[in-house]
Amino acid sequence: MGKSIAPYSQVVDQVQAAFADFRRALPREDQARFDTLFNYARRHTPGGVLLADPDPFRPVLLGMLIELFRRLDAAGLDRAGSALPDAARDPASAPGEAATAPAAPSRRGGAV
């Protein structure tokens, strides 16, 4: 039989428990922020389950970062905390990225 895989919510709890000493050393207001980060990670359970990474911290960290970026974008702030111009809030208008998806190749067999 293969090794059973712990539920992702349990993996997040285990990672959080591994940082218990670090959390205790934080000021009280930062302890609340620490807990919030792990709550953010729990919001991205489907991605963590599908990743099935042997290092459980990586999907937890990615979930935290995605949620933080989502909140910055929703607040209209860039990653440095400055207000974004309206055009920058639209991911389709980001520099170096096409506003629309590239055209799919033709299926008729002709040159594209």
Gross morphology: flat
Strand portion, in percent? under 5%
Order of helices and strands: HHHHHH
N- to C-terminal distance: 50 Å
Number of helices: 6
Please count the beta strands (DSSP E, at least 2 residues each).
0
Helix/strand structural class: mainly alpha
Gist of the model:
The protein has 112 residues and is mainly alpha-helical.
Characteristic terms for this protein:
mainly alpha, flat, disordered C terminus, 112 residues, 6 helices
Topology:
Elements: H1 8-18, H2 20-25, H3 28-42, H4 45-51, H5 57-74, H6 86-89
Helix pairs in contact: 1-3, 3-5
Written overview of the protein:
The chain has 112 residues and is mostly helical. It contains six helices and no strands. The model is unreliable at 93-110 (pLDDT under 50). The longest helix has 18 residues, at 57-74. The radius of gyration is 20 Å and the shape is flat.
